[in-house]
Amino acid sequence: MSVEKEINITEKKNACLEKLTEVFDNNADNEFIIEKIYNHVLGLDLFIVNLKKQIEERTIRKEELTKQKEIFTKNFLFNNQFFYNPSNNKYFYYDGINYSNESEDDVHFKCVTGITNHHNLNDWKQKTRISVLKEIKNKSIFKTIPDTVTIQNIHGKLTPLFFKTKTETKYFLTIIGDNILKKGSDLIYFINPKCKTFLNELQEKLNISFGNYNVIDNFKTKYKDHLFSNIRIIEINNNIENKDLWINFIKEYILDFICVCIYYSNRYSSSEEFLFKDTRQCFRKEVLFLKTNTQDTLIDTFIKDFLIIDKSIKSEIDWKNMHFLWKKFIENLNIPNVIYTNTLKQKLLLKLETDNDSFIGITSKYLPNIEEFLCFWNENMVYEVKDNFIGDFEISEVLLLYNDYRISKNMGFSDIEEEFIVQIIYHFMDNIEIQKNKYLLNVYSKLWNKENDVYLCIGEYLTKSTTSDVYGAYEYYIEQSQGKKFIVSKCFFEKCFSNYFNDN
Q1: 328 and 369 in contact (C-beta within 8 Å)?
Q2: How many other CB atoms are found less than 10 A from the CB of residue 172?
Q3: 3-class DSSP state for residue 99?
Q4: pLDDT tens digit sequence for 324-334
Q5: Sign of the torsion angle spanned by Cα atoms 337, 341, 345, 346
Q6: Are the CB atoms for 211 and 88 separated by under 8 Å?
Q7: From CA 335, how far away is CA 330, in angstroms rounded?
Q8: Residue 263: beta bridge partners?
Q9: Cα–Cα distance measured from residue 165 to residue 151, given in angstroms and rounded to the nearest whole number
Q10: Strand partners, 140
Q11: Tens of pLDDT along 39-93?
């Protein structure tokens, strides 16, 4: 026993003796009180025995309740995977397949219900509830580890529909995870411009379900003097622009998506660590393409791959064609336009040793396709705004007309595709509006009067039918068009059908 403790006991004993003496002295004339004090003091031994027994029982009970509380808490959290986001005070529940938002009231209810069913803890309901909730708040959603089924489900939603391989998908998910966990860096990720709607929707749904975390600021679609060393290229399929393909995924699986992103970021430390340690060299080369190049090396590659230089031949490329070839070049590389137009022009003029807008003694294997299509267009296609009808041609229809035109000239089928036509029109024809990369507005053809074909058919149909049913009319049109080269779409036919009656 320490000296300090011994002194304290002695002081308390002396105080008790003094008090007892005082009580006896004050009540010396009252025999009844004196007897009661006497009996009480003599019975202290039994009182102390009972007190010690009570203390021991309470200790044992407390130890048992503590043990039961710990067992319950462990089992409850094992069977109910709750997680917590301290930044916005939100709870989440994971059933082994999907994550979901959970209100605080629901968490409390499930907890209390579980305690109630555990009869041994009825005396400790409040303490147990507090203990469980404390443990839940210690289970950060930022440390969650999804099961394989959840991870593979997210991969299945994105690969190969939007990303060609699982590696590409995993890299993208890790980047998003880095952004959620605020692993700041100077890296810039260039993506397909058609991806913007997807990313904006992703950001919106993340804010609603998870909290305000900016995950898309470092994704760019246009070059603005970014350092090549900080640029990473992310390849995403063009069909990402089709909202119908992913909108339900974003709505239903946003939390699964977020948690998989967080998991990958934690697992690999960062997207850069993943890129350099867990990917094949060919993939790294694509992602880091700009990091290993300069403006000059890109231009040199363009000259080597796209141009044919022969000063002995009488050929030349004007600047508009040269600029188009450059756009085709960077498209093939799947990189953004990282050289401003004026800079590109000056560097090309210098490298090709010319000082005007015509690059003499230079041609390209791609030029014939461009020139032949432009020749076809100038001869056979017309841009005209009409008051009573908005004409439109589908890109696929233009390609059909172009190939029919080439056959009539004994030139054979062209190897160009619809996307190439869109690029030509965007670059060379400023007046033409393209909707959804599919429809050319206010465009007509000398080779095929679409409206006239439809109007004639509608007139014939109405003379043979007692009803003016558009579906019946289109069926009649299809029947009458058997063997014809060109057939309009149902949508175009319905528009013509409506205009027919408006005009009459």
Answers
A1: no
A2: 23
A3: strand
A4: 999 999 998 98
A5: negative
A6: yes
A7: 6
A8: none
A9: 15
A10: 84
A11: 888 878 888 777 777 777 677 666 665 676 666 667 777 778 889 998 888 999 9
Could you give the CA distance from residue 300 to residue 24 in angstroms, rounded to a whole number?
114
Q: Contact 100/45 with Cβ under 8 angstroms?
A: no
Alpha carbon distance 168, 170 (integer Å) = 6
Q: What is the Cα–Cα distance from 502 to 254, expressed in whole angstroms?
A: 47
Share of the chain above pLDDT 90, in %: 49
Q: How many CB atoms lie within 10 A of CB 88?
A: 11
The residues spanned by each domain of the chain are 3-42, 54-143, 148-287, 295-365
Residues counted in the chain: 504
How would you class 31 by CB atoms within 10 Å of its CB: exposed for 0-12, middle for 13-18, buried for 19 or more? exposed
**299 in Cβ contact with 347 (< 8 Å):** yes
Picking from 144, 140, 151, 114, the residue whose alpha carbon sits closest to that of residue 129 is 114
The distance from CA 284 to its chain's CA centroid, rounded to whole angstroms, is: 21
233's enclosing H/E stretch is: strand 231-233
Determine the 3-state secondary structure of 430 from DSSP: coil
29 burial type by CB count under 10 A (0-12 exposed, 13-18 middle, 19+ buried): exposed
Alpha helices in 214-291 (DSSP H): 247-268, 271-277, 281-287
Cis peptide before 146 (omega within 30 of 0): no
CA 97 to chain CA centroid, nearest Å: 19
Does residue 284 have a pLDDT over 90? yes
489 secondary structure, DSSP code: -
**To the nearest whole percent, how much of the chain has pLDDT over 70?**
92
- In sequence order, what are the beta bridge partners of 444? 382
Phi-psi region for residue 334, left (φ > 0), alpha (ψ -120 to 50) or beta?
left
DSSP string, 202-221: HHHHHHHHT-----STTEES
What is the spatial distance between Cα 455 and Cα 476, in angstroms, rounded to a whole number? Answer: 12
Distances (CA, A) of 218 to 119, 171, 199, 233: 54, 15, 11, 12
* Contact predicate 488/450, CB 8 Å: yes
Sheet strands (E) in 37-175: 81-85, 90-94, 99-102
> For residue 501, what pLDDT band results from cuts at 50, 70 and 90?
confident
pTM above 0.90, yes or no: no
Q: Which residue has the higher pLDDT, 46 or 197?
A: 197
Closest CA to 497 of 470, 471, 475: 470
The tokens for 380 are 């056979």
Number of neighbours of residue 219 by Cβ within 10 angstroms: 19
